[in-house]
TrEMBL record:
Catalyzed chemical reaction(s): ATP + protein L-histidine = ADP + protein N-phospho-L-histidine
Swiss-Prot/TrEMBL keywords: Kinase, Phosphoprotein, Transferase
EC number(s) from the headed UniProt entry: 2.7.13.3
Keyword Transcription carried by entry: no
Species per Swiss-Prot/TrEMBL record: Sphingomonas vulcanisoli
Enzyme class: transferase
Listed name of the protein: histidine kinase
Ranges of residues in domain Histidine kinase: 41-256
Full-protein positions shown: 32 to 300 of 512
Top-rank lineage group of the source organism: Bacteria
Lineage of the organism: Bacteria, Pseudomonadati, Pseudomonadota, Alphaproteobacteria, Sphingomonadales
Record keyword Disulfide bond present: no
Protein backbone atom coordinates (compact mmCIF):
# COMPACT_ATOMS: atom_id res chain seq x y z
CA UNK A 1 0.00 0.00 0.00
CA UNK A 2 2.50 2.65 1.20
CA UNK A 3 5.10 1.50 -1.33
CA UNK A 4 2.65 1.71 -4.22
CA UNK A 5 1.63 5.24 -3.19
CA UNK A 6 5.29 6.31 -3.04
CA UNK A 7 5.87 4.80 -6.50
CA UNK A 8 2.88 6.67 -7.88
CA UNK A 9 4.16 9.94 -6.45
CA UNK A 10 7.54 9.32 -7.99
CA UNK A 11 5.98 8.52 -11.37
CA UNK A 12 3.83 11.66 -11.24
CA UNK A 13 6.90 13.70 -10.38
CA UNK A 14 8.89 12.22 -13.28
CA UNK A 15 6.00 12.89 -15.65
CA UNK A 16 5.90 16.52 -14.56
CA UNK A 17 9.65 16.83 -15.09
CA UNK A 18 9.39 15.33 -18.57
CA UNK A 19 6.59 17.75 -19.50
CA UNK A 20 8.69 20.65 -18.25
CA UNK A 21 11.70 19.52 -20.25
CA UNK A 22 9.53 19.14 -23.34
CA UNK A 23 8.26 22.68 -22.92
CA UNK A 24 11.79 24.00 -22.48
CA UNK A 25 12.86 22.12 -25.61
CA UNK A 26 9.97 23.56 -27.62
CA UNK A 27 10.74 27.08 -26.42
CA UNK A 28 14.42 26.68 -27.35
CA UNK A 29 13.45 25.33 -30.78
CA UNK A 30 11.08 28.23 -31.39
CA UNK A 31 13.79 30.71 -30.38
CA UNK A 32 16.23 28.99 -32.70
CA UNK A 33 13.83 29.08 -35.60
CA UNK A 34 13.19 32.77 -35.05
CA UNK A 35 16.94 33.36 -35.05
CA UNK A 36 17.40 31.40 -38.28
CA UNK A 37 14.59 33.30 -40.00
CA UNK A 38 16.15 36.51 -38.80
CA UNK A 39 19.60 35.62 -40.13
CA UNK A 40 18.19 34.55 -43.48
CA UNK A 41 16.37 37.84 -43.90
CA UNK A 42 19.44 39.83 -42.84
CA UNK A 43 21.68 38.03 -45.32
CA UNK A 44 19.12 38.62 -48.03
CA UNK A 45 18.81 42.32 -47.18
CA UNK A 46 22.57 42.80 -47.20
CA UNK A 47 23.07 41.05 -50.50
CA UNK A 48 21.08 43.46 -52.64
CA UNK A 49 22.96 46.73 -51.94
CA UNK A 50 26.23 44.80 -52.11
CA UNK A 51 25.30 43.44 -55.55
CA UNK A 52 24.50 46.96 -56.71
CA UNK A 53 27.87 48.27 -55.52
CA UNK A 54 29.63 45.34 -57.12
CA UNK A 55 27.83 45.80 -60.44
CA UNK A 56 28.52 49.51 -60.71
CA UNK A 57 32.13 49.11 -59.66
CA UNK A 58 32.54 46.54 -62.47
CA UNK A 59 30.99 48.93 -64.98
CA UNK A 60 33.43 51.64 -63.93
CA UNK A 61 36.33 49.25 -64.15
CA UNK A 62 35.53 47.87 -67.59
CA UNK A 63 33.94 50.74 -69.42
CA UNK A 64 35.76 54.05 -69.20
CA UNK A 65 32.93 55.82 -71.00
CA UNK A 66 30.51 54.96 -68.19
CA UNK A 67 29.56 58.15 -66.28
CA UNK A 68 31.38 58.10 -62.95
CA UNK A 69 29.17 60.70 -61.32
CA UNK A 70 26.06 58.61 -61.80
CA UNK A 71 27.79 55.43 -60.64
CA UNK A 72 29.19 57.30 -57.65
CA UNK A 73 25.72 58.38 -56.61
CA UNK A 74 24.29 54.86 -56.88
CA UNK A 75 27.24 53.38 -55.00
CA UNK A 76 26.96 55.99 -52.26
CA UNK A 77 23.23 55.34 -51.84
CA UNK A 78 23.80 51.60 -51.64
CA UNK A 79 26.58 52.10 -49.11
CA UNK A 80 24.27 54.29 -47.06
CA UNK A 81 21.63 51.60 -47.18
CA UNK A 82 24.19 49.06 -45.96
CA UNK A 83 25.28 51.36 -43.18
CA UNK A 84 21.67 51.73 -42.05
CA UNK A 85 21.23 47.97 -42.13
CA UNK A 86 24.32 47.35 -40.08
CA UNK A 87 23.44 50.08 -37.60
CA UNK A 88 19.95 48.67 -37.20
CA UNK A 89 21.39 45.22 -36.70
CA UNK A 90 23.86 46.47 -34.12
CA UNK A 91 21.06 48.22 -32.31
CA UNK A 92 18.90 45.10 -32.30
CA UNK A 93 21.73 42.83 -31.19
CA UNK A 94 22.67 45.28 -28.44
CA UNK A 95 19.08 45.16 -27.25
CA UNK A 96 18.65 41.41 -27.63
CA UNK A 97 22.09 40.68 -26.24
CA UNK A 98 20.96 42.41 -23.09
CA UNK A 99 23.84 44.89 -23.18
CA UNK A 100 21.42 47.77 -23.29
CA UNK A 101 21.42 50.09 -20.30
CA UNK A 102 18.35 51.96 -19.23
CA UNK A 103 19.05 55.36 -17.81
CA UNK A 104 16.85 57.19 -15.42
CA UNK A 105 16.95 60.82 -16.54
CA UNK A 106 14.90 63.76 -15.36
CA UNK A 107 13.13 64.65 -18.57
CA UNK A 108 11.30 67.89 -19.26
CA UNK A 109 8.60 66.10 -21.16
CA UNK A 110 6.79 69.06 -22.74
CA UNK A 111 10.08 70.39 -24.02
CA UNK A 112 10.99 67.01 -25.48
CA UNK A 113 7.61 66.77 -27.25
CA UNK A 114 8.02 70.32 -28.55
CA UNK A 115 11.45 69.44 -29.96
CA UNK A 116 10.04 66.47 -31.82
CA UNK A 117 7.40 68.65 -33.48
CA UNK A 118 10.04 71.25 -34.39
CA UNK A 119 12.26 68.56 -35.81
CA UNK A 120 9.59 67.45 -38.32
CA UNK A 121 8.04 70.85 -38.94
CA UNK A 122 9.84 71.48 -42.24
CA UNK A 123 9.38 67.99 -43.61
CA UNK A 124 5.65 68.04 -42.82
CA UNK A 125 5.19 71.57 -44.19
CA UNK A 126 6.94 70.66 -47.43
CA UNK A 127 4.26 67.99 -48.01
CA UNK A 128 1.51 70.37 -46.92
CA UNK A 129 0.83 68.28 -43.81
CA UNK A 130 -0.62 69.74 -40.66
CA UNK A 131 1.59 68.52 -37.78
CA UNK A 132 0.19 69.09 -34.32
CA UNK A 133 0.82 68.35 -30.66
CA UNK A 134 -2.20 68.05 -28.38
CA UNK A 135 -1.67 67.60 -24.65
CA UNK A 136 -4.94 66.45 -23.08
CA UNK A 137 -3.99 66.12 -19.42
CA UNK A 138 -1.81 67.94 -16.98
CA UNK A 139 1.79 66.79 -17.40
CA UNK A 140 4.40 67.00 -14.64
CA UNK A 141 7.25 69.45 -15.40
CA UNK A 142 9.68 66.62 -15.15
CA UNK A 143 9.33 62.87 -15.54
CA UNK A 144 11.74 60.03 -15.02
CA UNK A 145 12.71 57.86 -17.98
CA UNK A 146 15.52 57.19 -20.43
CA UNK A 147 15.46 60.37 -22.51
CA UNK A 148 17.39 59.12 -25.53
CA UNK A 149 15.24 56.03 -25.89
CA UNK A 150 11.99 57.93 -25.50
CA UNK A 151 13.18 60.46 -28.07
CA UNK A 152 14.15 57.68 -30.49
CA UNK A 153 10.72 56.04 -30.15
CA UNK A 154 8.92 59.31 -30.88
CA UNK A 155 11.20 60.19 -33.78
CA UNK A 156 10.58 56.79 -35.37
CA UNK A 157 6.80 57.05 -35.00
CA UNK A 158 6.50 60.63 -36.22
CA UNK A 159 8.93 60.05 -39.05
CA UNK A 160 6.85 57.08 -40.25
CA UNK A 161 3.62 59.05 -39.90
CA UNK A 162 5.01 61.88 -42.05
CA UNK A 163 6.56 59.46 -44.53
CA UNK A 164 3.42 57.37 -45.06
CA UNK A 165 0.98 60.30 -45.21
CA UNK A 166 0.58 61.96 -48.61
CA UNK A 167 -1.93 64.55 -47.39
CA UNK A 168 -3.89 65.64 -44.36
CA UNK A 169 -2.47 65.65 -40.86
CA UNK A 170 -0.23 64.05 -38.31
CA UNK A 171 -1.25 64.51 -34.70
CA UNK A 172 0.60 63.66 -31.53
CA UNK A 173 -1.89 63.35 -28.68
CA UNK A 174 -0.72 62.94 -25.10
CA UNK A 175 -2.82 61.62 -22.25
CA UNK A 176 -1.51 61.23 -18.72
CA UNK A 177 -3.14 59.44 -15.79
CA UNK A 178 -1.62 57.92 -12.66
CA UNK A 179 1.97 58.25 -13.93
CA UNK A 180 1.14 56.46 -17.19
CA UNK A 181 1.38 58.30 -20.48
CA UNK A 182 -0.44 57.33 -23.65
CA UNK A 183 1.25 59.03 -26.57
CA UNK A 184 -0.68 58.55 -29.81
CA UNK A 185 0.90 59.36 -33.14
CA UNK A 186 -1.99 59.41 -35.61
CA UNK A 187 -2.00 60.16 -39.28
CA UNK A 188 -4.38 60.40 -42.23
CA UNK A 189 -2.07 58.39 -44.44
CA UNK A 190 -2.04 55.23 -46.54
CA UNK A 191 -2.85 52.98 -43.57
CA UNK A 192 -1.95 49.35 -43.01
CA UNK A 193 -3.92 46.27 -44.11
CA UNK A 194 -5.26 44.09 -41.30
CA UNK A 195 -3.01 41.15 -42.19
CA UNK A 196 0.08 43.36 -41.89
CA UNK A 197 -0.80 44.93 -38.56
CA UNK A 198 1.20 42.52 -36.39
CA UNK A 199 3.95 41.95 -38.90
CA UNK A 200 5.07 45.57 -39.15
CA UNK A 201 6.85 45.19 -35.80
CA UNK A 202 9.00 42.33 -37.11
CA UNK A 203 12.52 43.15 -38.34
CA UNK A 204 12.68 43.81 -42.12
CA UNK A 205 8.91 43.63 -42.52
CA UNK A 206 7.66 46.39 -44.78
CA UNK A 207 4.06 45.31 -45.13
CA UNK A 208 2.45 44.13 -48.34
CA UNK A 209 1.17 47.39 -49.78
CA UNK A 210 2.64 48.79 -52.99
CA UNK A 211 2.20 52.30 -51.69
CA UNK A 212 4.31 51.65 -48.60
CA UNK A 213 7.05 50.10 -50.70
CA UNK A 214 7.32 53.25 -52.79
CA UNK A 215 8.78 54.96 -49.73
CA UNK A 216 12.43 54.41 -48.82
CA UNK A 217 12.99 52.15 -45.83
CA UNK A 218 14.33 48.84 -44.67
CA UNK A 219 11.68 47.78 -42.18
CA UNK A 220 13.73 48.01 -39.02
CA UNK A 221 12.33 51.19 -37.44
CA UNK A 222 9.24 49.71 -35.81
CA UNK A 223 10.97 46.56 -34.58
CA UNK A 224 13.53 48.74 -32.81
CA UNK A 225 10.81 51.09 -31.61
CA UNK A 226 8.82 48.30 -30.00
CA UNK A 227 11.86 46.82 -28.25
CA UNK A 228 12.82 50.27 -26.98
CA UNK A 229 9.28 50.78 -25.66
CA UNK A 230 9.47 47.43 -23.88
CA UNK A 231 12.87 48.30 -22.46
CA UNK A 232 11.23 51.39 -20.94
CA UNK A 233 8.61 49.14 -19.38
CA UNK A 234 5.95 50.09 -21.91
CA UNK A 235 4.63 48.87 -25.23
CA UNK A 236 3.37 49.97 -28.62
CA UNK A 237 0.08 49.11 -30.27
CA UNK A 238 -1.29 50.06 -33.66
CA UNK A 239 -4.72 50.51 -35.16
CA UNK A 240 -5.13 51.34 -38.81
CA UNK A 241 -7.50 51.48 -41.74
CA UNK A 242 -6.13 51.37 -45.28
CA UNK A 243 -6.52 54.71 -47.08
CA UNK A 244 -7.83 56.34 -43.92
CA UNK A 245 -4.89 56.41 -41.57
CA UNK A 246 -2.95 54.82 -38.76
CA UNK A 247 -2.54 55.42 -35.09
CA UNK A 248 0.43 54.15 -33.10
CA UNK A 249 0.06 54.26 -29.33
CA UNK A 250 3.03 54.28 -27.01
CA UNK A 251 1.97 53.46 -23.47
CA UNK A 252 4.74 54.06 -20.99
CA UNK A 253 5.21 54.75 -17.28
CA UNK A 254 6.48 58.28 -16.84
CA UNK A 255 6.66 58.81 -13.10
CA UNK A 256 6.78 62.45 -12.06
CA UNK A 257 10.35 63.27 -11.05
CA UNK A 258 10.57 64.82 -7.64
CA UNK A 259 12.98 67.68 -7.97
CA UNK A 260 16.35 67.68 -6.24
CA UNK A 261 16.24 69.09 -2.67
CA UNK A 262 17.98 72.35 -3.64
CA UNK A 263 15.61 72.96 -6.51
CA UNK A 264 12.58 72.36 -4.37
CA UNK A 265 13.81 74.78 -1.71
CA UNK A 266 14.55 77.58 -4.17
CA UNK A 267 11.91 76.79 -6.74
CA UNK A 268 8.14 76.68 -6.76
CA UNK A 269 6.34 76.70 -3.47
P1 LIG B 1 10.31 51.18 -42.85
O1 LIG B 1 9.55 52.45 -42.73
O2 LIG B 1 11.79 51.38 -42.99
O3 LIG B 1 9.76 50.25 -43.90
P2 LIG B 1 9.32 50.42 -40.19
O4 LIG B 1 9.75 49.24 -39.36
O5 LIG B 1 9.42 51.75 -39.56
O6 LIG B 1 10.21 50.34 -41.50
O7 LIG B 1 7.84 50.16 -40.68
C1 LIG B 1 7.48 48.90 -41.18
C2 LIG B 1 6.32 49.02 -42.15
O8 LIG B 1 5.15 49.42 -41.44
C3 LIG B 1 6.49 50.07 -43.24
O9 LIG B 1 7.22 49.57 -44.32
C4 LIG B 1 5.05 50.41 -43.59
O10 LIG B 1 4.53 49.43 -44.48
C5 LIG B 1 4.34 50.25 -42.27
N1 LIG B 1 4.13 51.53 -41.57
C6 LIG B 1 4.82 52.01 -40.52
N2 LIG B 1 4.31 53.19 -40.10
C7 LIG B 1 3.27 53.47 -40.90
C8 LIG B 1 2.30 54.55 -40.97
N3 LIG B 1 2.33 55.58 -40.12
N4 LIG B 1 1.36 54.46 -41.94
C9 LIG B 1 1.30 53.41 -42.80
N5 LIG B 1 2.17 52.38 -42.78
C10 LIG B 1 3.14 52.41 -41.84
Amino acid sequence: GADAAADNREIAQLKAEITELQHAKEAAEAANEAKTRYLVSVSHEIRSPLNTIYGYAQLLERDDTFPGVEAGAVIRRSAEHLTNLVEGLLEISRIEGGVIRVRSDDVEIRRLLGHIVEMFHMQAASKGLDLRLIIKDHLPDCVRTDEKKLRQILINLVSNAVKYTPEGKVTITVRYRSQVADIDVSDTGIGIAAIDLDRVFEPFERGGSQEARLQPGIGLGLSITRVLAQVLGGDIAVTSTPNVGSSFRLRVMLPAATRAVNDAASGDR
